[in-house]
Amino acid sequence: MAARSSSRFKSLRRLAVAAACAGAMSAAPAADVQQHVLKDPHYGDTLFHFFQDRYFTSITTLMVSQHFDRVSQHADEAELLRGGMLLSYGLHREAGEIFAQLIDRSATPAVRDRAWFYLAKIRYQRGFTAEAEAAMARIEKNLPPALEEERMLLQANMLLARGEYAAAAEVLKAPAAKAEAGQYARYNLGVALVKGGDAKAGSEMLDALGKAPALTEEFRNLRDKANVALGFTALQNQEPHLARGYLERVRLNGPHSNKALLGFGWAAAEMKDAKLALVPWTELATRDASDSAVLEARIAVPYAYAELGAFGQALDRYNEAVAEFEREGRALDETIAAIRAGKLVQGLAESNPGDEMGWFWNIRELPEMPHGRHLSQVMAQHEFQEAFKNWRDLQFLHRNLQRWQDNLGVFTDMLDNRRKAFTDRLPQVRAKASETGLPQLQQQAGALSRELAEVEASADAGALADERERALIERIDGVRATLEQLDPKDPETAATRERYRLAAGAMTWQLAQHYPNRLWEAKKGQKTLEAQLVEAQRRDAALAQAQKDEPVRFDKFGERIAALNPRIAALLPRVVALGNEQQQQVQDIAVAELSRQKERLAVYATQARFALAQLYDRAIATRSADDTPKQ
């Protein structure tokens, strides 16, 4: 069946992005995404790593934040984001449990259907058909139009995989009837109708698709695929004229051109036109030999020459083909030896570096190999891509565990230094606290509080005078004492007494003016002092408690570090062993594909040798007939 050319997990990334930006339990339109507000900084930290394509860091950071309840204001969407990332790693069972819990709790119908759809899709892609069908059965009718079409295609693929072609055709009729975005549906419907026994209707559907205009490369490839399918179906039905018409529509340089050229040549051969067959076969024979169609063309060309009676050229071409097959076989052996030596896997890892593990990572650069062209068929395999990603993730986990093992030693040193610093500094801090005399300070604060209350009760403004005013009050009191000793009848004494009265009155008035503000400031200072004393008491109590608790905390940290050490030590060899097994599996997949190419080479080489033998027999028979004396 046709598969879209976009990334295999593009839909899963959309799910995770939707969870991160739009919220798990809302069906807000895309325009509202920019208005989403992050209320928990730790959730923002998770999203930062996520949008930097650091998915392992993102999911581990998120799980730590969830453990310490740091993302409570984004609980549902954080959980959906975690489920989406687990799903992208292929952990569909764990993701399914998360989705089920969210759905049962508070998901809206639209979000619920999207979650089940993505879960069904990843399960189907990983080969868990039964689990995928179970998830599909949970989807109701709340998907957006684009996803609804994908759902129908996915359901049809499941039916086709079970051989239920008629049921698949019924599912595909609705999306295939759409004017736009129904090309895949129409292709799959055509295939389902043909395999279901309605060849006429299926061929008409594929024929319409094969002639339809295509604006994108993706749909041009699909159009070529439809025409190739029609052409080979016509060849099987012994209708070479129809086959030629279908195959002529295929582009000469598209991904399906090799198969189309091969089929076009066989259609001409079926029409007994070997000369016409030579045109596509000769072109095809010059192309990359890693394609089986090219290998077949290299023995089809001499076959056409033989049909035309050009036996000398046929012999030369057959010999060239046998020699080429032998060279290609030796080249395949060299490539297989390099793969078994680990050059392919290690080279791919070195040519495509990445800091993180993840299913969105893709192979972009090929390594240096003896015959790199052999890798095209290997890399095209979905099985190889998935196996290599698994191996790469195991290498990342191995490096991560090694880093943690090194970090544990650092943590041990940090803990020892902190324990020593605490032990050394605690007596000093306690001694300093004793010197300050907190109880004495509390007594003084109480005395000041009582004194202030008495000042307020008696409205003693002089008690709140500043230093300058106190000095003036002392001078005024001194003047009064001197006046009491002077002769009251003396005229100068009377004048002095008047000046004293005015000065004392001015001072009394000044003190009365400042009294309310000073009383308020004094009360404020008193409250500040009391608050500071309370804080000092709290810190003293905390210090006393820390004296008991910190040694226990240090011991617990030490126990955790000690417990993690053997766990990591046990995990490391397991990850190494799994990595070696996975590397062997990756290499076996690549070798199996190249071995199949060798088998095809052997088959074609046998056919070429057999054809050579037939030509030699024919030549011998012809010579014998010529040498026979005529009667």
How would you describe this protein?
The chain has helices at 10-22, 41-51, 55-67, 75-88, 92-105, 109-125, 129-137, 145-161, 165-176, 183-195, 199-211, 217-236, 240-247, 257-270, 274-285, 292-307, 311-340, 343-351, 375-379, 382-436, 438-458, 467-485, 491-627. With 631 residues, it is mainly alpha-helical. Helix content is 78%, strand content 0%. The longest helix is centred in the last third of the chain and has 137 residues, at 491-627. It has a domain at 10-253: Tetratricopeptide repeat domain (Serine Threonine Protein Phosphatase 5, Tetratricopeptide repeat, Alpha Horseshoe). The chain has 23 helices and no strands. Mean pLDDT is 81; it is low at 1-34.
Task: Summarize it.
With 631 residues, this protein is an all-alpha fold. The chain has 23 helices and no strands. It starts with 9 loop residues before the first helix and ends with a helix.
What's the pLDDT, averaged over the residues?
81
Quickly name the level 1 CATH class of the domain at 10-253.
Mainly Alpha
Q: In angstroms, what is the radius of gyration?
A: 45 Å
Instruction: Give the low-confidence spans.
Output: 1-34
Shape-level CATH architecture of the domain at 10-253:
Alpha Horseshoe
Q: What kind of sheet is the major sheet? A: none
Assign the CATH superfamily of the domain at 10-253. Tetratricopeptide repeat domain
Query: What is the terminal-to-terminal distance?
Result: 66 Å
Structural class: mainly alpha
Q: Give the beta-strand count.
A: 0
Helix content: over 70%
Q: What is the ordering of alpha helices and beta strands?
A: HHHHHHHHHHHHHHHHHHHHHHH
The multimeric state of the shown protein is single chain
Tally of contiguous helical segments? 23
Strand-residue fraction? under 5%
The CATH topology of the domain at 10-253 is: Serine Threonine Protein Phosphatase 5, Tetratricopeptide repeat
| Coarse shape | elongated
